[in-house]
């Protein structure tokens, strides 16, 4: 394409504003971009989109090729493994050409239970299938559609569900009669969690504050009453806390979970007496978390009251405060107790050991360990699948790795044997033997060893020569999942080495790993990422002039910081919905997430927190220097990282960067935090990203 057809990059006007705080002046020339209703703001975003489209036009054939490749590796008509619940087998399926899932069920044959190996539905569904919800139908005429909560009453006659049609994660509640197929008009707005009582007509749900999007109110609704009327049961006043309603696996109790990032409280209500009042299991204590499930008159409570990595205790329902807790599994400094799945005869302990998930089976009567489910690969993802029934002698779990497609197993506790129910099909010529996965440890600046998961194609690897792609997140104690993604084959088959950095701030090595990368320790997150990249280059996993990095949301913060601190180290940056305007966002308590997030980032109204946050805030630390090529992506209806953060960031960076590398901003004008909602639309977004990455790395020649 000739250069005359390429648009010039937009230039946002400057309208200086200043905030004086703690003896500092925060200068912001682009605060006016916050006005979402402004035609000037929309025009600017559309101008950036037009510029991006014009620059990327020569790469469009590559994007089309990548899309076709990725599509060829997807089983476009597919079904999930059915699970048993109250006399039915439930599953979802998707049909070639359709963007969204269908949620279905069939009556279970006589004698079926939770341990029955379910039949896999044919691609077109069972002849006696009942489609409970077709999201494709809900999406008709909508630019965006997302299903939120989805729960069927115990008797199988009513479905409660929520949908969002903007991407702002603002969900509307509906109830469908599964006999007649009739759906109610919208019953509530801004709904989060929902749960049925055991009477099959009382529904509990939480709603969010309209401004801050904090789930703060619990309501009860009798859907059989005429007219229906919701009753407010609880309102949480502390702005750090969100609330959620769920139900114990045995169905006996409804649990109201009230939690911040560091503190939690449980209130319980007998599911068979929905008009009773909720009782507190144990009073909240600052910086102490606990979570509970129920079995035969006893609570099983996972808590970090004696150590950051949690222990397991039990107590009777009648005497459940902390003075009556009896320890089953002690706290261990080197093992994170992530979750407990409770059944009548056993429970599964989900732990994280040296950064990897482990599943251990424990006999409930004796509290003695029975066995651990073995996993064969050096880096993998293992997690609970849907285990809907309390009276089960088997345990459903999922397993996958960077080279093993997603697999669902059913584990027989008595036989100590796993049965593969289904492994995802990867069409298009996928040969697993061509690829290899590794797990290494890279020393950080302070000598601490950071886990790194790697995958590459063996026959295309030459030490020190390959393009290197490094992905990171490192916040909220979130453990970066190491799973299979067929889209990555387009990178691996072109010789890229893919690395996933399990940096501090995540949860891979337990709560202390999170603590070491939050608040005043946040710089460790960024230093770890830089150290991992340097280690990989020094050990031949990539070429120094061919490094691409990617992160989104808090991972976008990571991208912004390391691009400021070490722009020489990276050639390409992919930044999705990046949290880059840290100071202005965290000083605005009216924005969604701000106050609850003080426990992760700090409260900048306090001088010490202000100073450590200002030291890394990407927007405030942009400076006159050369930067890598960047593709920055956002969505107009993002409720978590507002679109104006990346828009302001790009506008300011355009005035400072000294290089001729591409700086592109793309805004999805009809989506939210996760991008496009339809699977084909989303795949096109990934193809677009990969085309930019491969082009800027010099792996693919354009034009």
Can you tell me about this structure?
- The chain is an alpha+beta fold.
- The chain folds into 5 domains: 8-71 and 579-587 and 603-703, Alpha/Beta hydrolase fold, catalytic domain (Rossmann fold, 3-Layer(aba) Sandwich), CATH 3.40.50.1820; 80-132, no CATH class; 142-280, Prolyl oligopeptidase, N-terminal domain (Methylamine Dehydrogenase, Chain H, 7 Propeller), CATH 2.130.10; 293-331, no CATH class; 334-427.
- 17% of the residues lie in helices and 33% in strands.
- It has 12 helices and 38 strands.
- The strands form 9 sheets. Strands 31-32-34-33-35-36-37-38 form an 8-stranded mixed sheet, with helices on both faces. Strands 3, 4, 5, 6 and 7 form a 5-stranded antiparallel sheet that branches. Strands 11-12-13-14 form a 4-stranded antiparallel sheet, with no helix packed on it.
- Strand 23 and strand 24 form a beta hairpin.
- Helix 2 (60-72) crosses helix 12.
- The longest helix is centred in the last third of the chain and has 19 residues, at 679-697.
- It is globular and about 70 Å long.
- The mean pLDDT is 97.
Q: How many separate domains?
A: 5
CATH topology of the largest domain: Rossmann fold
How many strand elements? 38
Count of helical segments?
Answer: 12
Portion in helices: 10-25%
Unreliable runs: none
Based on Cα principal axes, name the global outline. Answer: globular
Largest sheet: 8 strands, mixed
Can you tell me the CATH class of the largest domain? Alpha Beta
* Intertermini distance: 7 Å
CATH-defined architecture of the largest domain: 3-Layer(aba) Sandwich
